[in-house]
Amino acid sequence: RRAYPFHEIEPKWQRYWEENKTFRTPDEIDTSKPKFYVLDMFPYPSGAGLHVGHPLGYTATDILARLRRMQGFNVLHPMGWDAFGLPAEQYAIQTGTHPKITTIKNIDRFRAQLKLLGFSYDWDREISTTEPDYYKWTQWIFLQLLKRGLAYQAEVPVNWCPALGTVLANEEVVDGVSERGGHPVIRKPMRQWMLKITEYADRLLEDLDDLDWPESVKEMQRNWIGRSEGAELQFNVVDTDGLERDIKITVYTTRPDTLFGATYLVLAPEHVLLSSIVSDVQRKDVEEYKELSSRKSDLERTELQKEKTGVFTGSYARNPANGLEIPIWVADYVLGSYGTGAIMAVPAHDSRDHEFALKYNIPFRGVVTPENGSFSYFEKAYSGEGIMINSSSPTSGLDINGLPSKDAASRVIEWLEKTGNGMKKVNYKLRDWLFARQRYWGEPIPVIFLDDTGECIPISEAELPLTLPELADFTPTGTGEPPLTKALSWVKTVDSTLGRSAQRETNTMPQWAGSCWYYLRFMDPRNSKALVDKEKEKYWSPVDVYVGGAEHAVLHLLYARFWHKVLYDVGVVSTKEPFKCVINQGIILGEVQYTAFRDSDGNLVSADSVDEMSNFSQESVLEEKACHLEIVMKSGEYFVMKDNSDIRLIARAHKMSKSRGNVVNPDDVVLQYGADSLRLYEMFMGPFRDSKTWSTSGIDGVHRFLARVWRLIVGSPSLDGKFKDGTIDLDGEPTVEQLRCLHRCINKVTEEIEGTRFNTAISAMMEFTNAAYKWDKLPRSVAEAFVLLLSPYAPHMAEELWSRLGHSSSLAYESFPKVNPDYLKESTVVLPVQINGKTRGTIQVEKTCTEEDAFKLASLDSKVSKYLDGKTIKKRIFVPGKILNIILDA
Ligand code: ANZ
């Protein structure tokens, strides 16, 4: 028995919206109206189809889009596909199916699944990053980057993944293996395209301040950019007789104040000067050490927990501050790619140096002391600020003793600049963006190399798009040469101006490229003359709300900001930032799973009696059965077996994954409960930004709520299965109480949507429904307003109810109910009751309550009545809505 006929109404309204293009945002719009651009992070159309995590964000943006339409905004709510990338290509290698075919198939599946959920996208604006019409402009942007010197080639050590046959960006390497697939990654120098994102570091940092983004995301971007201020300074290398050699080592430090505390130098193993300063005695050890560390990733090298290693080079340098000779070491906790690849080590004040110096018996020299009290530098490095000590030398004339460390830092910099030993310096952790992939399924890079000179020149804009050639064999060449080298007739070309023979670039762009600017194309998706029309861009920019996963905090969101700023400089966009407000939805974890334990005889044992040392076996059989709480129940804080409450279980929610078998497929949910239930449930699970666990009984609950709404307005199914008339009173005027109830609901729903607290908005609608069930009649005006309130959440049901209420067209552009504050005022008050001027109790009364009624209520109240028993009342003083004072005869 179906609670309501969602099987019929959902496809019906989806068809209606499609046929009537209800959600189309026309090209020519009334720009005097306010705009609202609400965007989802467009998906990668994987072979697996949608999972229930997708609709979480998509429902939220859909609710906002539907709300704003009803509030009179022009709304832009588009959807598209981030469809270049590795999986389609890997699939092609395995099966021989062209990535284009796989991509189209996957996109069709995704689109169909999204349509099943009733999202109000303007499908006329659909784009895919893999369409030549689209990537024409990705390539065009690359040409602008090239023109501005922001794209360049370099021989750089890259993360080479032999198994994938490609180079990966640092961000795609996690713990030394590829993020996708977990294959080992090694360092290897190769010619690469780089984008100079570092040139935008300061702007990317400064403009973060004004963004309405999660603070955590902004902080991650700040750390990623990693701006630090300090100094670069030189140390002279000295020979065994203490004579200056003609070699200087430049170090970068953020703590120039600690110069007197530098008791050794460290070079990164890849430092260019290493081979020239290493002594003959030490050469073999140093070479071996270099070899060893070349096999580690930067991440492994800098991990704080890892034991630090290093080798003495046999050489010394002179500390310019005090003239002392200090040893030079090589150690891989210093990275070749940061600062100058060399440091002055201050073991008393830096914990990494501290650990290293202890291990290798290198002296300490404390030079900063906490303002109040002393510090034992041997136990721990003191990295805080304080007062300078041990920091004066007649040789150099530098004396910073007694200064606060902050001031000392400036003094040292001044001194360095005066003596020519160094200068102030700002550094960034941010590296230029490695922008080439040795893969097939990506945007071709629009440059050619002339055969005779090898010169690299861009192709002309008129030649765009440079389309990907068809290719039958996708297997990586294994040498790092991209698969496109196999497209011989495509590679061989001539330059368009002089007809000189040339070869095309065979690297392609990384997957991040297409997603860097797609939000702009949605504003004007079919423009063949420009990336986006200027007027349209001006009207729609910036994206008002951008919703997606927190995993995109640095990469996508930083790259997109970078490109946007370049496009701002080029004059294509009018705003400095692309996304005004970013919201991260939480993760949906799988249904709670229960684990039971058995001893070696196979008997169930309580989880609290199992410790790690014992060899009890875990039983996961319980998981499936128990999720419906058939054999498990809650007891206090714990879960126990229903038939034996002494047996405790472990309850945990896990990320949904194929291997765990806890993936919930949205199609199945739609089939069983309908799209409206799925939408409503995902919004009701908990605060939008939090992680939450899937629960089948939870979706039952919201489904029952929707059925109650249906019965309230349409009526109940009678025995013959037909629905009988509902409780609508077409002519009835609403009572004040009904209006109060409605406006409380309007108020809550509106406020909570604005704060993206969808779950509490739904609670408010549930409260309204509960109240309405107690009424004899539901006046039409109240019912209609409620249907409109519900419509952003459960649009199919709302449209159907709206039409059954006698409307002939969609409610999508009806105005959203507005709250009348008059109905929000509380109608009752808490009235203090005094006896002879002393408060003895309170009663709850209508504001308009008369003296007589108040007195009656008060004398029924046990706290008050005991003072009245057997007494004569002399006088009553009553201030309506304020107080009742009863004066007794003495
Ligand atoms: C001396 C010193 C004394 C330092 C002290 C710190 C504390 P951030 O903030 O990350 O920029 N450093 C410099 N280059 C490095 C490299 N290539 N690899 C590893 N470490 C490097 O940190 C800059 C600090 O990290 C520098 O300041 C340097 O150590 C180290 F009490 O110099 B410091």
Automatic annotation (TrEMBL):
GO terms for biological process: leucyl-tRNA aminoacylation; post-embryonic development; reproductive structure development. Pfam families: Anticodon_1, tRNA-synt_1, tRNA-synt_1_2, tRNA-synt_1g. Keywords: Aminoacyl-tRNA synthetase, ATP-binding, Ligase, Nucleotide-binding, Protein biosynthesis. Gene3D superfamilies: HUPs, Isoleucyl-tRNA Synthetase, Domain 1, Valyl/Leucyl/Isoleucyl-tRNA synthetase, editing domain. GO terms for molecular function: aminoacyl-tRNA deacylase activity; ATP binding; leucine-tRNA ligase activity. It catalyses: tRNA(Leu) + L-leucine + ATP = L-leucyl-tRNA(Leu) + AMP + diphosphate. Residues 428-591, 653-682 form the Aminoacyl-tRNA synthetase class Ia domain. Its EC number is 6.1.1.4. The keyword ATP-binding applies. Residues 222-417 form the Leucyl-tRNA synthetase editing domain. The keyword Signal does not apply. Residues 739-847 form the Methionyl/Valyl/Leucyl/Isoleucyl-tRNA synthetase anticodon-binding domain. One of its GO terms (cellular component) is mitochondrion. Residues 41-173 form the Methionyl/Leucyl tRNA synthetase domain. It comes from the Eukaryota. It is an enzyme of class 6 (ligase). PANTHER family: LEUCINE--TRNA LIGASE, MITOCHONDRIAL (PTHR43740:SF2), LEUCYL-TRNA SYNTHETASE (PTHR43740). NCBIfam families: leuS_bact. Belongs to the class-I aminoacyl-tRNA synthetase family. This is leucine--tRNA ligase. It comes from Buddleja alternifolia. The lineage of its organism: Eukaryota, Viridiplantae, Streptophyta, Embryophyta, Tracheophyta.
